[in-house]
Amino acid sequence: MGNAFRRSPWQLFGLVLGLAYGVVTVVLVIGALVAARLAPVVADVHSVLVVIGSIVVAGFLLLPLLFGVDDTLDPRKFALLGIPDRRLALALGLSGLIGIPAIVLFICALATVITWSRDPGAAVLAVLSAIIVVPTCVLASRISTAIASLFVSSRRSKEAGGVVAILVLVLIAPVLLLLLTVDWGRDGLGALSGFAGWLQWTPLGAVWSMPGAAADGAGGAAFVQFLVAVATVGVLWLVWRALVALVVVAPEREAHVREHHGLGWFGRLPGGPTAAIAARSMTYWGRDARYWVALVMIPVIPVFVIVALTLGGLPMHFASLVPLPLVCLFLGWTIHNDVAFDSTAVWLHLVSGTRGFADRLGRMFPPLLVGIPVIAVGSVVTAAVFGDWAVLPAIEALCGSILVIGLGLSSIFSALFPYPATKPGDSAFTQPQTSGASSALAQALSFFAIVILASPAIIFLALGLTVNPFWLGVSPVVSVLVGFAALGGGLWAGGRLFDKRGPELMAFANRND
Fold it and tell me: What is the per-residue DSSP string for 135-200?
């Protein structure tokens, strides 16, 4: 900890900034705990502290695992020193107490004595709670970091963990929006009491619940929760000791080289340039993190839209019509910059004399293979949730139309307006630096062009739902006509552009390599 103050000025600035955040956090938390001392209802204070404390313990456990925190005191660094496993585990566990998070946690946990000072027994249990909660959180953090070093050290694993972390953060946002709509003065404490009712018996909340249960007159419950908290520390210590013994002797995890037998998709699809490009695209979609990261994020977007529409007052059965078309919209839009994802490998398409039509058609295979079952299953689910099977043909046709419109227009834009993308082999979470607004313009034009072409079918579907069911029969016809026209026109125009702009595409790939 002292050596940290001898580092570079920027690292020292970061450390001082972290200390400042810690001081502010301590001041705010102590102020809140002092105010809670004056609250008239003990049960309400108990519920709030249990829920917030459980979130803190969960954060110490999950954040290192999701974000891959670098461990300064990795047990592997002591492998050659011959330190017994038990002593090394104890020393590394104690070293976890020397840090800003642990110090802030201990001060804030000890400050709960102020809150529970209204009852002598509760105050004593608050001191015990502070003594127990710090090793609980520190050991949980050390265990997560050790597990991450064992199993999440390869870049592919870290990218998968990053995707999970982003999904968690994205899914938390709608929860926060819903929390903002709760009338906390009327319903908030009741909701917190419900959460606290089961969290107080778990390893996450038992340690925080002990003093509150005693102050509320439930001495037996406080004793049981004390046993749960002590048992949690014991189990974490045993797991940490076992992990140290394993990490010290286990070699550092390296990227596993998979052996692939056969030709994969190239052997499953028939011969010809279109099939070869389709097989290459399917291989990319299955192995390249840039594709599957984007694919994983597509189903998350409708969550925000549904929450926003629901909060805006739209009935749930109408909001249920939105997710599937949105998924199809983004699925068709995914290949609008596919040429840039190829980077300099696009020269193989050009030098082999592959026709632009075959190139455009082959790249559509992966989103079609994913989109067709999604539409088939999703439209049935949508109609069932909506509660009227009469909308099923219109929903199926609309979603299929949006998908093929997106694929047709993306075939044009990927050849006409390619913009810099993440290079092959780079992390899927890196973004290239670009000058100007060309990339934003290309994304906006390609996206809103899909919406504009699909708008007639959307309007007829809306008329059928709100004005006259007759329009529910018109919407599928319009969807099919516009969809196939956009798909055919996009294939023809995109193929011509790819043939004509081959040198420009190669120059773009070399310029952004």
Answer: HHHHHHHHHHHHHHHHHS-SHHHHHHHHHHHHHHHHHHHHHHHHHHHS-IIIIIHHHHHHHHHHHT
CA gap 199, 54 in Å, rounded: 7
Q: Given this model, what pLDDT does residue 423 score?
A: 73
Rounded Cα distance, 384 and 392, in Å: 9
Name the residue with tokens 């990261």.
293
Distance between CA atoms of 443 and 428, rounded to whole angstroms?
Answer: 18
**Burial class, 131, CB count within 10 angstroms (exposed 0-12 / middle 13-18 / buried 19+):** middle
Q: Return the residue matching tokens 């952004």.
A: 512
What's the whole-model pTM score?
0.60
422: left (phi over 0), alpha (psi -120 to 50) or beta: beta
Contact in structure between 475 and 462 (CB atoms under 8 Å):
no
pLDDT at 425 over 70: no
Question: Binning pLDDT at 50, 70 and 90, where does residue 14 land?
Answer: low
pLDDT reported for residue 231: 93
pLDDT of residue 161: 56
